[in-house]
Amino acid sequence: MNTVHKWRFFRSGGFDQVRLETGADIKFLGTLDPKLWAALSCPTSNLEFDGKTLEFIDTDRDGHIRVPEIIAAVEWVSSVLKDPGDLTSGAEALQLSAIDDSTSEGAALLASARQILLNIGKKDEEVITVEDTADLNKIFASTKFNGDGIIPATAASDAETQAVIEDVMKCVGSVQDRSGLPGVSAELIEQFFTEAKAYSEWWQDAERDADSILPLGENTEAAKAAFDAVKAKIDDYFTRCKLAEFDQKAGDPLNPALSDYEALTNTDLSRTTEQLATLPLAKIEAKKPLPLNEGINPAWSDAIDALKQQVIQPLLADKEQLSADEWQALCDRFTAHQAWLDAKQGAVVELLGIGRIRSILAGRYQDEISALLQKDQSLASASDAIDSVEKLIRYQRNLFQLLNNFVSFRDFYTVQNKAIFQAGSLYLDGRNCDFCLRVDDIEKHSSMAGLSGIYLAYCECQRRGGSEKMNIAAAFTNGDADNLMVGRNGIFYDRKGQDWDATIIKIIEHPISVRQAFWYPYKRIGKMIGEQVEKMASAREKLVQDQAAAGVADISQKAEAGKPPAAAPFDVGKFAGIFAAIGLAIGAIGTAIASVVTGFMGLVWWQMPLTILGLILVISGPSVLIAFLKLRKRNLAPLLDGSGWAVNTRAIINIPFGISLTQMAALPAGAQRSLTDPYAEKKRPWKSYLFILLLLGSIAYLFHGGYLNQGTIDTLKKHFLSDKAETSTEGASTVQEIPSPSPETEEAADSQKTEADKSFHPGVEEEMKNESAISPEPVLTVPAPKPLPPPQNR
Fold first, then answer.
1. Which of 345, 395, 404, 426 could form a disulfide with 399 if both were Cys (CB 3.0 to 4.6 A apart)?
2. Which tens digit of pLDDT belongs to each residue from 603-658?
3. Is the CB of residue 402 less than 8 Å from the CB of residue 456?
4. In 3D, which of 479, 405, 427 has the Cα closest to residue 640?
């Protein structure tokens, strides 16, 4: 009866992820729509996961794990275990009672597991581990046959067959048996006996024409070797002699020159000296035979003696010298033998000799060894079941972890375990980044990872005292980027706890945190001001240097002319203009400050913090808003896709989760902290002096410009007295009105402003006269203040 499995999901990372918690969840995984899987493919490399388990799952050996392979692994393990829920425990040891022996495959697995325990001396154990199956040499050490199709020499029961197997391995090589011993396979046996038969037939061809092919019988091979050793040198000797016969003038040049012998005077000479071997075999003369006893080049005397004993004496009798015709006759005697050698077959078994080869072929050794191989292969199913036992143990320990990093990203989005793609932790700049990926090709990965919206620092890591290197991509999801730059060093700890020296070699910039975005505009303005000040200071310094250089050059020219340099006259107008410009600048700054301060102080008390908050929002608000929107869209998928994954969803890394991936430095709970720094910079009052100077300059400018006069002071004084009266008379319903300034006060203020304008701006008096002719009405500098509203009940 088909039943529909009821799936459960949890939401994390911005998408729904399936919960895999029970044996039924695992058993019915094949019915889950692949569109709901977190990933569709993952590589078998650069993962913090058991490589042997991935090798078992990757049945097509393409280096990637895909959905059908995951489903096949789950279905197989569910068929051989009584309860697939055992996978959720991730136990290191497999209980033999957990294997379902009601099926033929399960029964074979159980039998193989017990056989393994028996072979390693644990026959009473009821659990088996990966370590028990890892040492195949120990498992098969006491067995002659193990089903791998390879037999060692010890598999044979008689010494003769064992010797033949040893001879086979000498000639055609060997392969390792599961027991750890060298052995032979069916292919090697077939190759050996094929070569042996070919070698025997080749020798039969020589034996049929022994007079021409084997002129010296069984000694022909040794004689041919002695002949070949000197053939080229003897041919050279007789060729030189014929050339001397052709032209008598060639005799001396063909013999060694005196300079050749002089070059040997400072050398320790022996028969093995290479320079001697290049000299002629004997003295070159026309029609001269080759001496065999005397007058031979010392470097070749031993070889000539071997030729004389093994070739010349058996074929030409004892001779003192060898003529050119006799040498040619010897060459002809070995022509047929050389043709036979060129057609050699079965050379790989030649080292055994024709006698041993024919002895092996005469026996029934090939049939006996083939029977041993067939007996070994008959146990192949049992030995294959041993591999299945190891696969089952590894699946029980590791498969559930893979499912929680492939079907869902539960390990990544929970705090219980780290994901299999997290390589370790990077400690740098007062924080540790737990989200680090192994990367093979940085350029290829960065082209895709830039779409993730995550701040990445690519680091080159190297083990201390070794040559092992690797590259990682570290995600910074908390803090700021002020001190992150290419070339900075840190320490990377892999999942095994090993430390690596890490150096940043590339950065992909994105927002890291809202805090960074808040301060970014102010830091940017400060940086811009600093750069401009630095540029102005550099330009001013260059100008001063140029002027100094020009002045020195001018003085030098005048000194050379014999005239003392004339002192430059003091330009009063020039300095007056400079002081006027400085005054205008200070006045403008004071006006701006006064305007801001006056406007701010004119606000009601509750409006002041709102104004400050509004100013902060205007400056930092856009940056914070943009960063907030980007941080909420950080995507894990492009990072994994750049490493060879095929992520099937949009896996979000939001702000709270990002904070958990990068921990900032914090003082331990209960730690004491002293704020006294003996090397802190000493406080100087220059800031206070500057503020007072600016304040006085602002007041002076206001008086000078007519914005602050006696009428304004009286108005502010009366306004202050009225506020004080309101405070002292609590509960009053009305407030006295402040009278307007008298006409005399206004006229005095106008006259003060007019005199000030005349003294500061030339020509203003004439313009004012023209204006008064056009408009006879006076212009008031300070308008009369409006009556204050009655105070509110407190």
1. 395
2. 777 877 887 788 777 777 777 787 777 888 899 999 999 999 999 999 999 989 99
3. no
4. 405
**Residue the block writes with tokens 């730690």:** 671
Strand partners, 455: 476
The span from the CA of 125 to the CA of 97, in Å, is 11
> CA–CA separation, 424 vs 492, rounded Å?
7
How far apart CA 584 and CA 580 sit, in angstroms, is 6
E strand or H helix at 130 = helix 130-134
CA 115, 118, 124, 128 torsion-angle sign: negative
Inter-axis angle of helices 186-208 and 159-172, nearest 10? 80
What the block records as the tokens of 481 is 């980027």
Around 111, how many Cα atoms within 13 Å sit in the side-chain half-sphere? 13
Closest CA to 712 of 748, 686, 681, 668: 748
> Using an 8 Å Cβ cutoff, are 109 and 390 in contact?
no
- Computed over every residue of the chain, the mean pLDDT equals 81
What strands, in cross-sheet order, belong to the sheet with 39-43?
64-66, 39-43, 646-647
- DSSP output for 131-168: HHHH-HHHHTTT-S--SSSEEEGGGSSSHHHHHHHHHH
The pLDDT score that the predictor gives to residue 582 is: 60
Separation of alpha carbons 30 and 68, rounded Å = 9
How far from each other are the two terminal CA atoms of the chain, in whole angstroms?
Answer: 82
Q: Is the dihedral of CA 396, 401, 402, 404 positive or negative?
A: positive
- What 143-147 contacts at long range (C-beta under 8 Å, 24+ apart), as own/partner pairs, is 143/119, 143/179, 144/376, 145/372, 145/375, 145/376, 145/378, 145/379, 146/177, 146/178, 146/179, 146/376, 146/379, 146/383, 147/376, 147/377, 147/378, 147/379, 147/380, 147/381, 147/382, 147/383, 147/384
Question: Residues 30-60: pLDDT tens digits?
Answer: 999 999 999 999 999 999 999 999 999 999 9
Give dist(CA 603, CA 592) in Å, integer: 17
The conformational region for residue 558 under phi > 0 = left, psi -120 to 50 = alpha, else beta, is alpha
